[in-house]
């Protein structure tokens, strides 16, 4: 008799799936006990709402055929970008994958520059050279926008290496999807960051799906435990709740800055839209989507503000109307902006403009 | 003029530049405590300390990418690969990140760094340890590529590569590390990027040869001279940008050209040089441009097969005899 437990009938996944019920508990702390100033609360609402409406408008423009390329939407995950930007110093470094619009907006890149980049215009945040997946804004310490899955983790370790070398008190933070967790670059980056005590927070945004493949079908074991062999401090965060994100990332940032050691965070979140615009999302149920929508980060903050009488309907309406107009203006701006001049084709390859290109 | 080994010339360039600029660090496998797998970095840990001379694990993807990230953020890293054969497991960081991030960010990002180490084979090491990569790196926009053939060039070119504000691929050779040559004593000996050198003047045929292949061309030229054939040898030194002007001028004088290239024939440097000559010096040619390359097969181990595989001066002499119609 064979001792084999299973006959090979196919390659069956052995990982663990999670649903809303597996979302870690949201923090019960008030904004005051989390150190969030009352006057910042509406700004946080504004940051999330801006990302949401920007992307909804971007999707419309894409469907109208106003620009080409891929379009991956961040809708549903805004609590993370907004919360992290709040928890970090403005000169801390942020680098992310191709689902990058929300991060640029949260960090302070203008809606005009973001929309223009989608439209491939010269006023875009990457001068129309990057497109949807490659937003960059170095003035705001936003390092992109990277579309080879997992390839930006070593870059994040390198940003942290330079910060440590220069002893400048900045930390680096690196965001990637659950699909990236299976790349070899994760192992190499974690090992080197732990070996050299690099001040970097690696963050997996576990939105449940690597494109159309559910977490339990692409990863063996718990994501957060990937950091265990490196003795990296780690935690799991409810990414649908802004205050939970702020709480955990404030702690993590303080630890990384003071101890000069890496940190790994698994953020459980959900994208409401498909992987990209061409994805109808047949791999998941409507019920699952609704379950997460019931935890919508923008609605949660709204409820909090109303419950604690920190804002009125009118206060939020004023913000929403203003943002609505700002984003419509951004669409107009992008439509009317100039295309990159033809000579830009040969610019920005090398630092010098007179490189003798081969013909 | 001092007579130095190739490895010593490279070490002098590294030491001088690291003394000059504190933002330079060097990292790679065995570069620090072991003093370098090929002793290029000997003594550097003692002088600069473990903050600037850094041993890495065998993790090319990781440390190549850390180099790129650190360069983006203000340092000038030098990444040593034990050989460029091992760089393949980290090549995504070179071809996608180092070469393209400046372009994709609309010029916001600068990546001043050097990837260096031995290129190509070193005898009977088998197929995976014997590949020439210069045409691959030169093919993709965003990188510069240098490949010195002599110690003096190596020092002056490496200093240029380190000071360049773009990612530079700097190729060396295990088999050349012990080779001796004269290195100028001048304090700041610099060889400009993209400048070929006519290393032997001649009137009958132009030989274009870089890196280790240069020395095969020299052997052939010495033998041919005994028969009254004078070869002009051009060492391009920088592969990208490639100094075609010097080659074209020479071909207009000699009307004949053989390219000697330690690479496989398809799509290599020899193909590119041949194409450019037919386009820009077509009316000056008295014979088709020929190339002496490696066969289109991986490197074998067996001594007899390896000797058949590797470049030989006889192949160069045959090619010269063909283009001069002496066969």
What is the terminal-to-terminal distance of chain B?
A: 42 Å
Helix content of chain A: 25-40%
Uncertain stretches of 5 or more adjacent residues of chain A: none
Structural class of chain A comes to alpha/beta
How are the strands of the biggest sheet of chain B laid out side by side? 3-2-4-5-7-6-12
Number of strands of chain B: 14
Give me the count of strands of chain A: 8
What does the average pLDDT of chain B come to? 97
What would your notes on this structure say?
The complex is a heterodimer of chains A (359) and B (327). Chain A has 359 residues and is an alpha/beta fold. Chain A has a single domain, classed as Rossmann fold. Chain A is built from 11 helices and 8 strands. The model of chain A has no long low-confidence stretch (mean pLDDT 94). Chain B has 327 residues and is an alpha/beta fold. Chain B has helices at 6-20, 44-48, 60-72, 91-98, 101-104, 134-139, 151-163, 211-226, 244-254, 269-280, 303-309, 313-323; strands at residues 2-5, 24-28, 53-55, 76-80, 113-118, 144-146, 167-172, 180-183, 197-200, 205-209, 231-235, 238-240, 257-260, 290-292. In chain B, strand 6, helix 7 (151-163) and strand 7 form a beta-alpha-beta unit. In chain B, the strands form 3 sheets. In chain B, strands 3-2-4-5-7-6-12 form a 7-stranded mixed sheet, sandwiched between helices. In chain B, strands 9-11-10-13-14 form a 5-stranded mixed sheet, sandwiched between helices. Chain B contains 12 helices and 14 strands. The chains are: A alpha/beta (359), B alpha/beta (327). At the A-B interface, strand 2, helix 5 and helix 6 of A face helix 3, helix 4 and helix 5 of B.
